[in-house]
From TrEMBL, chain A:
<keyword id="KW-0812">Transmembrane</keyword>
<protein>
    <submittedName>
        <fullName>VA0E2 ATPase</fullName>
    </submittedName>
</protein>
<dbReference type="GO" id="GO:0033179">
    <property type="term" value="C:proton-transporting V-type ATPase, V0 domain"/>
</dbReference>
<keyword id="KW-0406">Ion transport</keyword>
<dbReference type="Pfam" id="PF05493">
    <property type="entry name" value="ATP_synt_H"/>
</dbReference>
<comment type="subunit">
    <text>V-ATPase is a heteromultimeric enzyme made up of two complexes: the ATP-hydrolytic V1 complex and the proton translocation V0 complex. The V1 complex consists of three catalytic AB heterodimers that form a heterohexamer, three peripheral stalks each consisting of EG heterodimers, one central rotor including subunits D and F, and the regulatory subunits C and H. The proton translocation complex V0 consists of the proton transport subunit a, a ring of proteolipid subunits c9c'', rotary subunit d, subunits e and f, and the accessory subunits ATP6AP1/Ac45 and ATP6AP2/PRR.</text>
</comment>
<dbReference type="InterPro" id="IPR008389">
    <property type="entry name" value="ATPase_V0-cplx_e1/e2_su"/>
</dbReference>
<dbReference type="GO" id="GO:0046961">
    <property type="term" value="F:proton-transporting ATPase activity, rotational mechanism"/>
</dbReference>
<comment type="function">
    <text>Subunit of the V0 complex of vacuolar(H+)-ATPase (V-ATPase), a multisubunit enzyme composed of a peripheral complex (V1) that hydrolyzes ATP and a membrane integral complex (V0) that translocates protons. V-ATPase is responsible for acidifying and maintaining the pH of intracellular compartments and in some cell types, is targeted to the plasma membrane, where it is responsible for acidifying the extracellular environment.</text>
</comment>
UniProtKB/TrEMBL annotation, chain B:
<feature type="region of interest" description="Disordered">
    <location>
        <begin position="680"/>
        <end position="703"/>
    </location>
</feature>
<keyword id="KW-0175">Coiled coil</keyword>
<feature type="transmembrane region" description="Helical">
    <location>
        <begin position="767"/>
        <end position="793"/>
    </location>
</feature>
<keyword id="KW-0406">Ion transport</keyword>
<comment type="similarity">
    <text>Belongs to the V-ATPase 116 kDa subunit family.</text>
</comment>
<dbReference type="Pfam" id="PF01496">
    <property type="entry name" value="V_ATPase_I"/>
</dbReference>
<feature type="coiled-coil region">
    <location>
        <begin position="94"/>
        <end position="121"/>
    </location>
</feature>
<keyword id="KW-0812">Transmembrane</keyword>
<keyword id="KW-0375">Hydrogen ion transport</keyword>
């Protein structure tokens, strides 16, 4: 759980905080920086919600018996 | 940031133009397309304006041009659009164009008239020729050798009326020959029979080749008739009857030799006429060529000229009648360019005195100008579709570049569909310069093409959300191994094959150690797509996600209003409006977000039996009650909630009364010369206008300002009350409105799952070669339905809802959108209909 958290936070932090410093000067600098920051915030938040919602599940998946029989041997 | 952040500074300016060089100055300005001209003569009717004569002249020329174009089109030529756009012509040139165009039109008319008459003549001659030829057949048949006339029924081939026999019958036989429309033949025959009682012989035969009917223009096979009769009276009757039936009657010479002579002469005449007709057609083609060469340029030139004169009509003359004054909205950045253009114009017209531009202060609200490039134009368009930003208000477009595709993607999340959309948009973007794509006439295609960057981003974000939802054409992918271990559960609960056979469905229990091994690192675990209760989990996840994202989006909107307050120097609104709004939002809905995250982190399967319901806690918070069965999430929850609710309720009256009271206090203070920017230009701006249009309003506005301010206070208070109610109720309803993110993503997921299981899966049933062949039409059906239903229909639906969320829920936190766009005077490219 900790590893993905660190990895993704670092990645989106890079996109949203570090990358804006490297945008070349030009008429579109402001727009590009806005885009980078907004993308980083939106995508990071979305991923964070997805992983937190599954961190402590209150109930488990209910599977059909065929699925159990198949997955049991396939995925382990 | 440039002008995408807020509108550029636009000022009111006055142009002083010399009458002599006014035309070329405006032409120069039009070529550059910088300024918007204001109408200084609004009360003057179009027929009384100064340059109405010139405008009328332009319109006459345009009429001639349209006649020329009609002729071109009738001859089947397609005029090419003008390659480079020529400048507007000066007066001499315009005169020349007018003369030449009229001359060409005259020539064209004459030539077409000649051609028509020549054609008519030719037709006549040919008909006569046919009549004679066919008539020969009846009247030149040799008589059966010396046999007396037999009493046979009169038929067409009877040589009874051969003129060589006429001495036997001692009567003079005359002929009437002509051409009649085939539909009238039977009626004609009947009438002749009834009227002339057998004293005639009529023969009808069809013309060997069809000819044009001059009246209708269609090709008809005419019927030639030859009537032989004897007696004068009969002759007159016959002629009258033929007149009635609109027949073309020709002179039928009686003797054989004269007939052959006439035929020969006709041949000669037809030959000559054909030659003349050919020459005429050649000349016509030449004239049309000349027209096609110059018409496009002329059209553009005259259009520009007319536009310039319409602009000149909007200017007013100053007192000395030597100088034109024009009032324009001009972006401040472009003032030097404008001066440059004026200088060029004066130089071109050869006048010695220069025209100049002067900036004029005004308190009217200028138009909004936001410069966009091909990428940002699409996003600015969807923002402007709701309302153009008020002057210098913060522009939501740069944020919408990302948030709009992101919100779309939440509702559309599927890797496969997102990839298809992305590739489609990529094709459009890579080939955007191809003329074939640009010149489409289908409006729907053009709409898609204009939004190609929008669709590109929408597809890209959909791929990302598709990965998070773990949906690729409704199938989950196991990029990482699943976090739920079925084997451990089976071993723990000893699920033997026999046990499995008797229990159709079993649940994995996360309380058992080893079954749940930590959250799936990227997105939703693939085991959920195999589970029968996956909607239970997904619904809870998506609803909470929608609420969290909605509150973050709305909070961002409220924060954007800071920029507006600071820019318009209304810092009191920072404290009296922004702060209460933020407190209300955060205390109630920010707390809800906190509860959601807290429950996710703190509560796990161990206490799943007693896990509190956030919804019930939230409702109890408002009602100041508590439910014994619903355990608190953290110790001290009830007092914390009470404080928050009180704080939120306290911020409402501050929001309601703060700003109006503040403004009232400022007015009651001794009348100091207020800076003109202090009163909100957004609310009402009917102060003095320092422009040429200003009349006695200037003098009077100073007089009735005390009354105006009192009235204004009631209006301000009303406005603020509406704003408060809208904001507070809006916070609640808009938060719920964001649940559409959940609803649409659920619909999309279900639709794609249904499509897969009901359509595509049937293709995999047959596992032999036949099954392989069957797979092809099944896949075709699947593909068509995917594109039609899931991409087009769902895409449009998600687009619409994302748009609504932006326009209403996001923008009503800070956006006014009551401005109007700067429409500069520019020569638009001619559209060739």
């Amino acid at each position: 759980f900790a590893l993905p958290l660190v990895l993704f936070s670092a990645f989106w932090g890079l996109v949203g905080i570090a990358a804006p410093w490297f945008v070349p000067k030009g008429p579109n600098r402001g727009v590009i920086i806005t885009m980078l920051v907004t993308t980083a915030v939106c995508c990071y938040l979305f991923w964070l919600i997805a992983i937190l919602a599954q961190a402590n599940p209150l109930f488990g998946p209910q599977l059909k018996n065929e699925t159990i029989w198949y997955v049991r041997f396939l995925w382990e | 940031m440039g002008s995408l952040f807020r509108s550029e500074e636009v000022c009111l300016a006055q142009l002083f133009l010399q009458s002599a060089s006014a035309y070329s100055c405006i032409s120069e300005l039009g070529e550059r397309g910088l300024l918007e001209f204001r109408d200084l003569n609004p009360k003057v009717s179009p027929f009384q304006r100064r340059f109405v004569g010139e405008v009328r002249r332009c319109e006459e020329m345009e009429k001639t041009f349209s006649f020329l174009q009609q002729e071109l089109r009738a001859a089947g030529r397609v005029p090419r659009p003008c390659a480079e756009s020529p400048r507007a012509p000066v007066a001499r040139e315009a005169l020349r164009v007018q003369e030449q165009s009229e001359q060409l039109a005259q020539e064209l008319r004459e030539v077409t008239r000649n051609r028509a008459s020549l054609r008519g003549n030719l037709r006549d001659l040919r008909q006569y020729l046919h009549v004679l030829r066919e008539g020969q057949r009846f009247t030149s048949l040799p008589a059966p050798l010396g046999s007396p006339p037999r009493p046979r029924a009169l038929s067409e081939r009877e040589p009874i009326l051969d003129p060589s026999l006429h001495q036997h019958l001692e009567r003079k036989i005359n002929f009437v020959a002509g051409v009649i429309h085939p539909w009238r033949v039977t009626a004609f025959e009947r009438l002749l029979w009834r009227a002339c009682r057998g004293y005639l012989v009529a023969s009808f035969v069809e013309m060997p080749e069809p000819m044009e009917d001059l009246a209708t223009g269609e090709s008809i096979t005419w019927v030639i008739f030859l009537i032989s009769y004897w007696g004068e009276q009969i002759g007159q009757k016959i002629r009258k009857i033929s007149d009635c039936f609109h027949c073309q009657v020709y002179l039928y010479p009686e003797s054989e030799s004269s007939r052959t002579d006439t035929i020969a002469k006709l041949h000669g005449q037809i030959q000559e006429l054909s030659v003349t007709l050919e020459e005429t057609e050649k000349y016509l083609a030449e004239v049309l060529d000349r027209v096609a060469l110059v018409l496009p340029t002329w059209r553009v030139q005259v259009q520009k000229m007319k536009a310039i004169y319409l602009i000149l009509n909007q200017c007013s003359f100053d007192v000395t009648e030597k100088c034109l004054i024009a009032e324009v909205w001009c972006p401040v950045q472009d003032l030097t360019q404008v001066q440059d253009a004026l200088r060029q114009g004066s130089y071109q017209s050869g006048s010695s005195v220069e025209c100049f531009v002067q900036r004029v202060p005004t308190s009217e609200s200028p138009p909004t100008l936001i410069r966009t490039n091909k990428f940002t134009a699409g996003f600015q368009n969807i923002v402007d579709a709701y309302g153009v930003a008020s002057y210098q208000e913060v522009n939501p477009a740069p944020y919408a570049i990302i948030t709009f595709p992101f919100i779309f993607a939440i509702m559309f999340g599927d890797v496969g569909h997102g990839l298809l959309m992305f590739l489609f948009a990529l094709w459009m973007v890579l080939y955007e310069d191809s003329p074939r794509l640009r010149q489409g006439t289908n409006e729907i295609w053009l709409t898609f093409f204009e939004g190609r960057y929008l669709i590109l981003l929408m597809g890209a974000f959909s791929i990302y959300t598709g990965f998070i939802y773990n949906e690729c054409f409704s199938k989950a992918t196991t990029i990482f191994p699943s976090a739920w271990s079925v084997a451990t559960m089976a071993n723990h609960s000893s699920w033997s094959s026999a046990y499995l056979a008797t229990h159709p469905s079993l649940t994995l229990d996360p309380n058992v150690t080893g079954v749940f091994r930590g959250p799936y690192p990227f997105g939703i675990d693939p085991i959920w797509s195999l589970a029968t209760n996956h909607l239970n989990f997904l619904n809870s996840f998506k609803m909470k996600m929608s609420v969290v994202l909605g509150i973050v989006h709305m909070g961002f909107g409220v924060v954007l209003s800071i920029f507006n307050h600071v820019h318009f120097k209304q810092r009191h609104r920072l404290v009296l409006e922004f702060l209460p709004e933020m407190i209300f939002l955060l205390a109630l809905f920010g707390y809800l977000v906190f509860l959601i995250f807290y429950k996710w982190i703190k509560f796990s399967a161990a206490d799943s039996m007693v896990a509190p319901s956030i919804l019930i806690h939230f409702i109890d918070m408002f009602l100041f009650t508590s439910n014994a069965e619903n355990l608190p999430l953290y110790p001290g929850q009830v007092p914390v909630q009470m404080v928050l609710v009180v704080l939120a309720l306290a911020s409402v009256p501050v929001l309601l009364l703060g700003t109006p009271l503040y403004q009232w206090c400022r007015q009651r203070a001794p009348r100091m010369p207020l800076a003109t920017g202090e009163q909100e230009p957004l609310l009402e701006g009917q102060e003095a206008r320092n422009s040429v249009n200003a009349t006695t309003e200037d003098v009077e506005s100073g007089g009735h300002s005390p009354d105006a301010k009192h009235l204004d206070f009631a209006e301000v208070f009303m406005h603020q009350a509406i704003h408060t109610i809208e904001y507070c109720l809006g916070c609640v309803s808009n938060t719920a409105s964001y649940l559409r993110l959940w609803a649409l993503s659920l619909a999309h997921a279900q639709l794609s799952e249904v499509l897969w299981s009901m359509v595509m899966r049937n293709g995999f049933v047959g596992l032999n070669y036949v099954g392989g062949v069957v797979l092809v039409p099944v896949f075709a059906a699947f593909a068509v339905l995917t594109v039609a239903i899931l991409l087009v229909m769902e895409g449009l639906s998600a687009f619409l809802h994302a748009l609504r969320l932006h326009w209403v829920e996001f923008q009503n936190k800070f956006y006014v959108g009551a401005g109007y766009k700067l429409c500069p005077f520019a020569f638009t490219p001619d559209t060739w209909e």
